Amino acid sequence: MKRILFVMLSAILLASCVAPETQPPAPVTPTEPEKKPEPPAGPSEKVPQPPKMQSIHWDSIVQPLVDQMVNANSVEAGKLLLVDSVKNNTNGSLRTLQATDVITNAISSRQVFQVVPKSQIHLAREALGLSAEDSLALRSKSIGLARYLNADYVLYSVVSNNHGQRDLEMQLMLVKTGEILWSGRGDIN
């Protein structure tokens, strides 16, 4: 019964539909585009120069800190060290990769630690799902990466802005416990 009623209602609905009348397409008349006069050739406007990055001589800042760190009492020579990338906690832009490279080179030249190579750090970041842009802003992430790489120490570095003066703070941490074994600070001019 319901089927018959449904079929009848469908037939009535379809019968009430009227096909729309077809209209012929509107005529198209081609027109030529208007020619705009060319602007007169005058002096070209100069593009403003972007602000120049302040160059920082990282060697003079890092070298005394590295000297202090390798001479700290609780540091054992020959251990594996992860040099974590420098964090920028200022509101300006800094070349933190350059600073990280300077720190790594300064430590490697002292031959006190075995430094984890960049290629291993890159592979470990990929394995842990950390992008190359992730600056590991938390010490716990740095320690987690160091544990994954079986490092004994991790060097955590951050540039901060204190009362208008920027400084680089470095902390050497024991990976097993997270204990800070050494801490140093240098002014950035």
Summarize the structure in words.
With 189 residues, this protein is an alpha/beta fold. It is elongated. The protein has helices at 2-16, 58-70, 96-110, 118-128, 139-148, and strands at residues 80-83, 87-89, 114-115, 153-162, 165-174, 180-187. The chain has a domain at 58-187: ABC-type transport auxiliary lipoprotein component (Rossmann fold). A hairpin with a 5-residue loop joins β5 and β6 (180-187). It has 5 helices and 6 strands. The N and C termini lie far apart (92 Å). The mean pLDDT is 82. Strands 1, 2, 3, 4, 5 and 6 form a 6-stranded mixed beta sheet that branches. α2 (58-70) packs across α3. The longest helix is centred in the N-terminal third of the chain and has 15 residues, at 2-16. It is found in: Cell outer membrane. Its main location: membrane. InterPro entries: LpoB. It is a lipid-anchor. Residues 21-52 are annotated as: Disordered.
